[in-house]
Each structure stands twice: as structure tokens, then as C-alpha cells.
Amino acid sequence: MTEKLNELLEASIELELCMSELYFLYENLFPEDSEFWWKLANEEVNHASLLKSGRVYLEKGILPEEILFEDITGLKSSIKKIQKMINEYNQTAPSFQ
Fold it and tell me: Quick one: which of 65, 75, 21 has its CA closest to 44?
């Protein structure tokens, strides 16, 4: 069970960091809304930090399973989609016009 929880925890951390990277990218792509994107990006960094602190509780066997999304496949799929978006946006900025 601990191995499964560790995998879920690490994937959750990676997802938060991917989201922050995407939001930091948006901060640069959309300067008129940069403050909004900057705040969201930093919020995701904070979420990742909180999850990282959960490693200690996992090692002690007291990490509440309820704080983690149970579907590792869904987490990994989301991470891949976000990374793909980041790569695409780094090559060609999105346009909403």
C-alpha cells in the first residue's frame, strides 16, 4: 500500500508543478493578465510544497489516503497532456482571437 501511495504522491506533486509551469508560461504569453497567472502559478508551487511535506507522513505510515487522487492513470494522463501543451505553446503561442 505504501508503494501505491508513494506513486500517487509523487504523481500529484508532478501534476502541481506541471500546472505551475503552464501558468508561468501563460504569465509571459498574456502580459495583460500576468498578475493573475503569476498568482495561480505560485499557488500550484505551494500545493506541490504541501504535498512534498507529506513524504514524511508517508514514511511514518500516517499519510491520510483521502488527500490523494486515487487514479494514477488519470494523474499520469493529465501530466502528459499538460506537458504536451507546454511544449506546443513554447513553439507557437496560443491565440484566442
Answer: 21
**Cβ-defined contacts of 49-53 (< 8 Å, 24+):** 51/9, 51/12, 51/13, 51/16, 52/13
Max intra-chain CA distance, the chain = 52
Q: Is the pTM of this model over 0.70?
A: yes
Backbone angles phi, psi at 78, to 5 degrees: -65, -40
Q: Which residue in 5, 24, 12 sits closest to 78, CA to CA?
A: 12
Each residue's pLDDT tens digit, 34-61: 999 999 999 999 999 999 999 999 889 8
d(CA 51, CA 68): 9
* Cβ-proximal residues to 34 (8 Å cutoff; 6+ apart), any chain: 27, 28
**Identity (one letter) of the amino acid at 23?**
Y
51, 50, 44: which is closest to 25 by C-alpha? 44
